[in-house]
Design a protein that fits this description.
The complex is a heterodimer of chains A (about 525) and B (about 230). Helices cover about 30% and strands about 25% of the residues of chain A. Chain A contains 14 helices and 19 strands. In chain A, strand 2 and strand 3 form a beta hairpin. Chain B is of the alpha/beta class. Chain B is built from seven helices and ten strands. In chain B, a hairpin with a 6-residue loop joins strand 9 and strand 10. The chains are: A alpha+beta (about 525), B alpha/beta (about 230). Chains A and B meet through helix 14, strand 12 and strand 16 of A and helix 3, helix 4, strand 5, helix 5 and strand 8 of B.
């Protein structure tokens, strides 16, 4: 197997980042908990025996006075951002696999900073100074007896490839080039992160990475497949995977001021073209593509309007200009810009236009797919719907998507046209007991509307806990129409949903009813009230 | 080579969108003619939505883009069962005051546009029929039973084929037993430029036996039965 030579990699590893991200010092006894299980614990808590993935109760019993904090993944990412920015200042692109772990290729910066060791120490210093703003300021002193690359809440290491560098970071070491295999050899086989593989190897008597690395490459490939072969390369210190570096967010927005403010469509046409060309030129120069385009407008009275446009192909200047023109037109010609009609005769115009590309990705020339099918490539169709979106707003032009559910209305989700749809949920194909058999009602109101069902004596028909109706339905009143006689009916079909949750629990009984005036309805009774869920129109 | 050069600008078959054979019989053409305006009107019985779904199902599954404007309560699970391709269906449920502009824009891009009749003034309707003809799109106006009052004189001009739903029967439901298995919809079809001008027929959704085809999305539309036609 031909594997590229692993690049020298520096890894910054923050052990128990969920704890540090919350501003907790290692000597506080803190455990971060998600779903009732410990996901991270501070050093003090670990000393008392708290270990992920213990249950919360167990953790509390081994460490009295343990502070239990719920996990906040968003905060973890936010807190890590300044750290990543600090690393990016060293000039090399930074790869972040999860908050608390960042890597960069050292090849360029090492020369500039005069060797790997001094570079690592510089990185360590930069990270440590951030501690203050994170509420983690400690007494980091690169003194003898303590590795200079280990802080209270972070560790830095350098080795060949990210895997070995992560191990090196745990010890705050710099592993010399070519020494990765020897360095990794004593580590436990579990460090590869594959429970399946490590348990199997353990039964075969292979306990360490060194033992695994000693196996023949061809034998590993034959016995463990390509996945195993990849891990084998890791164990041999040949982690040749390139770092998946993150693209730096850049300010790519373009804007223009209009003086005097534009009050009619013609005045904006030129502006739109110009702005669109600037935006596309800037994106192209960076080799980027965006999937959403935000249009922001400021009116002469200081109000702000904003709308986001999606397009599942490449944005060309013509497309951008067109969307922008439609949007401005819709705002100018439509219900009027806010801030007008205040008695003064002055017309409200547009004084500033700004285009903000979002969801920017490297332009690989690949088109987004919709529902796993070829994208909507018929430009005529896209333009028509985009035009309507300009008039009404993007969320008023929708595509239906079938999902799992019991009620006809539950089984449909709406996705604004042009938005990349979530992958078709596979629950649509699962059996949903209680789902209506085909044919389904052809008219399904968004909100079920009230109905009334009476028996022969003119009494309200109810359904008891055993699913037995209190009488035979004889007359039905639907919506605001006059009562109509029932000519055929069937039911009740009880639906008992989420009985395990007192708040969400719903019990309904469904009926199908055909009335003398020819109508066919799907009715449901929920807590004694009749509603129309659908009709067969 | 020569064939390419002497080919007429628009082939007749390009002018037709596929439609289920039962409908073809009623329409008098083997398909939905592009540029035409159809109306589906409730005349004392429900079934307009079924007829509308039935009309577009074949075209939709053959790749035509459909849009529905102003039809807020479409049963989309049923549409899927009829064979309407939901991934080529776009909904504008609440076009509001700009209904005519919205429909005009949809006609520019879609092959078939379903619109709710109420909410459009007479002058707008006429213009939209013209627009449909210009853009080679099919405009289908649906006037359901809720809109009975409005539908008394729906789309008087420019309607090429008008389906009036005059009656219907639900099959499969008894007194406290069974379930709706099939819906027979009786229609009176008025064609503007054909003879005989009026045809009566019964359409079955999904089929008279109420069998559910194993592959509903392809088969439902085809299982229409025009027993009792004329």
């Amino acid at each position: 197997m031909k594997v590229p030579v692993p690049a020298r990699t520096l890894v910054l590893w923050c052990p128990d980042w969920p704890v540090s991200a919350g501003g907790h010092r290692p000597e506080e006894a803190v455990a971060v908990v998600a779903d009732g299980k410990v996901v991270a614990a501070s050093a003090a808590a670990r000393r008392s025996g708290v270990r992920p993935p213990q249950r919360r109760r167990q953790a509390e019993s081994c460490c009295p006075g343990l502070a239990v904090v719920p996990r906040d993944p968003g905060a973890e990412v936010r807190a890590f951002e300044p750290v990543v920015v600090a690393l990016e200042r060293f000039g090399a692109p930074v790869a972040v696999r999860r908050p608390g772990w960042a890597a960069l290729a050292t090849r360029g910066p090492t020369r500039y900073f005069g060797g790997e060791e001094s570079f690592a120490v510089d990185v360590a210093g930069a990270v440590e100074t951030l501690g203050e703003s994170l509420g983690l300021a400690g007494e980091y002193r690169p003194v003898a007896g303590r590795a200079p690359l280990v802080g209270d809440w972070w560790r830095v290491g350098i080795a060949d490839g990210p895997f070995a560098a992560t191990m090196a970071a745990q010890q705050g070491r710099i592993v010399p080039r070519g020494g990765a295999r020897a360095f990794l050899a004593p580590f436990d086989i579990e460090r590869l992160g594959s429970a399946q593989l490590s348990s199997l190897l353990r039964r075969l008597g292979v306990m360490t990475l060194g033992g695994f690395a000693a196996l023949e490459e061809t034998d590993v490939l034959a016995r463990f497949g390509s996945d195993g072969a990849r891990l084998h390369q890791l164990a041999r210190g040949r982690d040749g995977r390139p770092l998946d570096v993150r693209a730096r967010p850049r300010d790519l927005a373009v804007e223009t001021h209009l003086e005097p403010p534009a009050v009619d469509v013609d005045a904006t046409a030129f502006v739109a073209k110009n702005l669109a060309e600037r935006l596309c030129g800037r994106l192209a120069a960076e080799g980027l593509a965006c999937s959403f385009l935000g249009i922001e407008v400021e009116t002469s009275t200081g109000n702000r309007l904003e709308r986001r446009w999606a397009h599942d192909g490449a944005w060309t200047p013509a497309l951008v200009a067109e969307r922008l023109r439609w949007q401005l037109e819709a705002w100018l010609v439509g219900p009027g810009l806010p801030g007008g009609g205040d008695g003064t005769n002055e017309e409200v115009g547009i004084s500033r236009v700004r285009l903000v590309p979002t969801d920017v990705v490297a332009d690989t020339g690949r088109q987004l797919e919709l529902w796993g099918r070829p994208r909507v490539d018929d430009e005529r169709v896209v333009r028509a719907f985009a035009r309507v979106q300009g008039l009404l707003g993007p969320e008023e032009v929708v595509r239906p998507l079938l999902v799992g559910g019991r009620e006809p209305a539950e089984r449909v989700r709406f996705v604004p046209f042009g938005d990349p749809a979530p992958a078709r949920p596979d629950d649509a194909a699962l059996p949903w007991p209680g789902q209506l058999p085909s044919p389904n009602p052809t008219v399904v109101p968004r909100e079920p509307y009230p109905a009334e069902v009476l028996d022969r004596d003119g009494r309200h028909v109810g359904v008891d806990g055993r699913g037995t109706p209190s009488g035979v339905p004889v007359s039905v009143t639907v919506g605001g129409r006059p009562p109509s006689l029932v000519v055929a009916w069937a039911g009740p079909w009880p639906v008992d949903e989420q009985w395990w949750d007192t708040a969400a629990h719903r019990r309904r009984a469904r009926f199908q009813v055909v009335t003398a005036d020819g109508g066919g309805y799907l009715l449901a009774i929920d807590r004694g009230r009749w509603v129309v869920e659908g009709s067969y129109d | 080579m020569v064939a390419q050069r002497v080919r007429p600008l628009v082939l007749a078959r390009d002018e037709l969108l596929p439609v289920a054979p039962e409908f073809a019989e009623l329409l008098g053409t083997p398909g939905l003619r592009r540029g035409s305006t159809l109306a589906v009107v409730a005349d004392g019985a429900p079934g307009t939505t079924s007829v509308a779904f039935g009309l577009v199902a074949e075209a939709s599954s053959a790749g035509a883009w459909c849009a529905a404007a102003g039809l807020e309560d479409l049963g989309l699970v049923a549409a899927d069962e009829f064979g309407v391709a939901l991934d080529r269906l776009v909904l504008v449920p609440r076009p509001g005051k700009r209904f005519p502009t919205v429909v005009a824009a949809l006609l520019d891009g879609c092959d078939v546009v379903l619109v709710a009749a109420p909410g459009l003034a007479l002058a707008d309707r006429r213009q939209l029929s013209v627009r449909a003809r210009e853009r080679r799109a099919v405009l289908i106006v649906v006037a359901g039973s809720q809109a009975a009052a409005v539908a008394s004189r729906p789309w008087p001009d420019g309607v090429d084929v008008r389906f009036s739903v005059t009656g219907g029967v639900f099959v499969g439901l008894g007194a406290g037993s069974g379930r709706v298995r099939a819906h027979r919809v009786d229609v009176a079809v008025t064609r503007r430029a054909a003879s005989p001008r009026e045809t009566r027929a019964s359409l079955w959704f999904p089929s008279p036996s109420g069998e559910i085809p194993s592959q509903p999305r392809v088969a439902v539309g085809k299982r229409l039965d025009s027993a009792g036609a004329r």
